[in-house]
Design brief:
Elements: H1 3-15, E1 16-22, E2 28-33, H2 36-39, H3 44-55, E3 63-67, H4 72-84, E4 90-94, E5 107-108, E6 116-124, H5 128-139, E7 143-152, H6 156-161, E8 166-171
Parallel strand pairs: 3-4, 3-6, 6-7, 7-8
Antiparallel strand pairs: 1-2, 4-5
């Protein structure tokens, strides 16, 4: 098996939780995909980085990140996977709101102004979180080349409607789930 298949197994074994939950979008579901159980796992995190780099290999960007907390481990995994492949890739974190103290930055990490960046998210239903990150990145002067998620729960249309290319490593069908 390759990275993509191995990561899918981690997701189905560790991250898919059955039971009634309320999603960040406010919608209710009979199951939840808790990808932090995978993106923060010692053996799965490297697969996340390599899979997401492979997914976006034809996009030109030099920094990756998104809205904290879902995007943070993805961006760091991609940074490490890129480094192992001798590729330069920075990571950044987009806060939900600007800091009221210190440097009062909304985007932490290396400067994104004037750079081509990739916005990532672990899973997305409406696109709200990743589009919030995109708005902050554009306000900071970054050029967002696209959005990539590990699992798409239906956000593709909203992200594309915002004028951005969108890719997902897995669909719900890939995981044997029904929306």
């Amino acid at each position: 098996m390759g990275d993509h298949d191995d990561l899918r197994k981690f997701i189905t074994d560790l991250a898919v939780v059955h039971g009634r939950v309320v999603l960040s979008s406010g919608r209710e579901a009979d199951w939840y995909v808790d990808l932090r159980r995978v993106t923060l796992h010692h053996a799965a995190a490297p697969l996340v980085g390599r899979t997401m780099l492979d997914l976006t290999a034809d996009w030109n960007y030099d920094a990756v990140g998104g809205l904290t907390l879902g995007a943070d481990p993805i961006a760091v995994s991609m940074l490490h996977a890129a480094s192992a492949a001798e590729r330069r890739l920075d990571a950044f974190v987009v806060r939900k709101a600007g800091k009221a103290h210190g440097l009062q930055r909304r985007i932490e990490g290396p400067e994104v102004s004037g750079r081509r960046v990739l916005a990532v998210e672990d899973t997305s239903t409406t696109g709200g979180s990743v589009l919030t990150a995109v708005e902050a990145l554009r306000e900071a002067g970054a050029e967002v080349v696209g959005v990539a998620v590990i699992v798409d729960r239906g956000a593709g249309d909203a992200v594309r409607a915002a004028g951005l290319p969108y890719r997902a490593a897995y669909t719900l069908a890939d995981l044997g789930l029904v929306a």
